[in-house]
Design brief:
Helices cover about 5% and strands about 30% of the residues. By secondary structure, the chain is mainly β. The strands form four sheets. It has a twelve-stranded mixed sheet with strand order 3-6-9-12-15-18-21-24-27-30-32-33, with no helix packed on it. A ten-stranded parallel sheet has the order 2-5-8-11-14-17-20-23-26-29, with no helix packed on it. The chain has an eight-stranded parallel sheet with strand order 1-4-7-10-13-16-19-22, with no helix packed on it. The longest helix is centred in the N-terminal third of the chain and has 4 residues, at about 70-75.
C-alpha cells in the first residue's frame, strides 16, 4: 500500500503525499502542502497552506496518560478527546517530530527534527523550535521567539515575544519534586518576558520571572526573579550588571530604574 488517505479527509490544490503516509478522518490540508514518507496525521488535524512535513513525523496525536500520572487528578486532562491540532500556513515540520492534539501553532513556525510539542500549547507566529526541543503541555510562546537545540520547556510555562533560549536550557515547575499534595498549588513553570535571553545549559526553577531584556548567563541556576534589564550569572544566579544598551532590541523606557 502506497499510503492511506481517509475518504473524509480534504486535501487542497497541489498537495503531495509521500510513501506509506496515513491521513486520518476529517483532516483538512490547505493548498501546496508537502507531506513526507511515513507521516501520520491524526483525525481532525487542520493544516494551513504551504506547509511542509518531513518523514516519520506524527501530527495531531491524542495524549496517553500513564496509570500513575497525576494529570487527570489535577484536571489537566480528561477522558474526552482534545480538539484537533491546528498548524498554521507556511510552517515547516522536520523529520521525526511529534505534535499533539489540542495545540495551536501559528504561521511561519519552524519545528526542527525530533522536536515535540505537547497538548494545549499555544505557539505564535515566526517561532523557531530547534532540533530535539521539548515543549510540555499548557505552555504559551510569543512571536519570533527562538528555542535552540535540546531546550526543555516544562509544562505551564509562559514565554513572551522575541525571547532567545540557547541550547540545552532546562526549566522546571515543581519545587517539591513529586512529593506532598502541597505541590499542586504551586506547580508552574517560569515566565520569561519579552526579549529576554537565556544562556546555554542554564536552569530555571519553578515560578521564576525573567524580566524584559534580562540576560541569564550560561550555566546559571535561577532560583528567584530576575529584574528587567539586568544580567545575572552564577549558582545561584545573582545580578552582576545592566543589560548593555547596544544589545537592547528596543530603547529602555524612561523612568526604569537601574
Amino acid at each position: 500500500m502506497k499510503n492511506f488517505i481517509h475518504e473524509t479527509a480534504k486535501l487542497g490544490e497541489n498537495c503531495q503525499v509521500g510513501f506509506f503516509s496515513v491521513i486520518g478522518e476529517n483532516v483538512v490540508c490547505g493548498n501546496h502542502v508537502t507531506i513526507g514518507n511515513n507521516v501520520t496525521i491524526h483525525a481532525g488535524t487542520r493544516i494551513g497552506d504551504h506547509v511542509r512535513i518531513d518523514d516519520n513525523s506524527v501530527i495531531g496525536k491524542q495524549p496517553y496518560v500513564a496509570a500513575t500520572s497525576t494529570l487527570k487528578k489535577r484536571g489537566d486532562i480528561s477522558d474526552e478527546p482534545l480538539p484537533p491540532l491546528v498548524l498554521g500556513e507556511h510552517c515547516f515540520v522536520g523529520a521525526n517530530a511529534v505534535l499533539y492534539a489540542g495545540a495551536r501553532i501559528g504561521k511561519h513556525v519552524l519545528i526542527a527534527d525530533l522536536a515535540s510539542i505537547r497538548e494545549k500549547c499555544e505557539i505564535s507566529d515566526y517561532v523557531i523550535v530547534g532540533r530535539g526541543v521539548t515543549i510540555e503541555n499548557g505552555t504559551t510562546i510569543g512571536e519570533y521567539t527562538k528555542l535552540q537545540a535540546e531546550v526543555y520547556i516544562t509544562a505551564l510555562s509562559t514565554i513572551e515575544d522575541r525571547v532567545f533560549i540557547a541550547p540545552t536550557v532546562s526549566t522546571t515547575n515543581d519545587n517539591f519534586m513529586a512529593r506532598t499534595e502541597e505541590r499542586f498549588k504551586w506547580r508552574k513553570g517560569p515566565h520569561i518576558k519579552s526579549r529576554a535571553r537565556i544562556g546555554g545549559n542554564a536552569v530555571l526553577l519553578p515560578r521564576v520571572t525573567i524580566g524584559v531584556e534580562a540576560v541569564v548567563g550560561a550555566g546559571s541556576v535561577v532560583t528567584k526573579d530576575v529584574p528587567d534589564y539586568k544580567v545575572v550569572m552564577g549558582v545561584p544566579a545573582r545580578v552582576v550588571k545592566d543589560t548593555p544598551v547596544e544589545q537592547l532590541l528596543e530603547p529602555r523606557p524612561q523612568g526604569v530604574k537601574s
